[in-house]
Design a protein that fits this description.
four-stranded antiparallel sheet; single chain; Small_HSP; 169 residues; 2 helices; three-stranded antiparallel sheet; alpha+beta; SHSP domain-containing protein; A-crystallin/Hsp20_dom; Immunoglobulin-like
Length: 169
């Protein structure tokens, strides 16, 4: 019978009984850690949730709130550490696109970086609105890392039209 090592740690690490490296002593903890890392990477790649630590410079799509009142739709997006110059907004065919890039900030080049958990890089989020919008009056404001886009509803919205069904010839 061929015996393979199924543990992600070296055989000498399994003898570590100091209590400092639980994953080295317990193969189930090591498996759990690897599964958590796998799912963190998966969710990061899909652009949902918060960016995982050490995600390699990828910035997840911004988290948004979509709100509505009688006159307007509001899209509120969190963009921490960014300014209005870093963000690009477009509206086309009922889809609001928020894109931008967060650049790495290294104030002191003489410092040696040990850990970087903050995410940097390019991002884009497209939000289908499924509602008629007055494109000429769309406005946006940026304050304290929060972008608020106001999209006035179009007057043509809300009027249902009955379509008569004809028998095909």
């Amino acid at each position: 019978m061929v015996r393979r090592n199924l543990f992600p740690v070296a055989g000498t690490d399994l003898g570590n009984r100091t209590g400092r490296n639980v994953a080295a002593r317990d193969p189930f903890t090591a498996l759990q850690t690897e599964m958590n890392r796998l799912f963190d990477d998966l969710w990061q790649g899909l652009g949902t949730g918060a960016p995982a630590a050490g995600a390699g410079g990828a910035l997840a799509a911004p988290q948004i709130d979509l709100q509505e009142d009688d006159e307007n739709l509001y899209v509120v997006a969190e963009l921490p550490g960014m300014s209005e110059d870093d963000v690009e907004l477009t509206y086309n065919d009922g889809v609001l696109r928020i894109a931008g890039e967060k650049k790495a900030e290294h104030e002191d080049q003489d410092r040696q970086v040990h850990v970087t958990e903050r995410a940097y890089g390019r991002f884009e989020r497209q939000i289908p609105l499924h509602r008629a919008v007055n494109e000429e009056q769309i406005s946006a404001a940026f304050k304290d890392g929060v972008l608020t886009v106001t999209l006035p509803k179009s007057e043509a919205e809300g009027q249902a039209r009955r379509i008569e069904v004809q028998r095909a010839a």
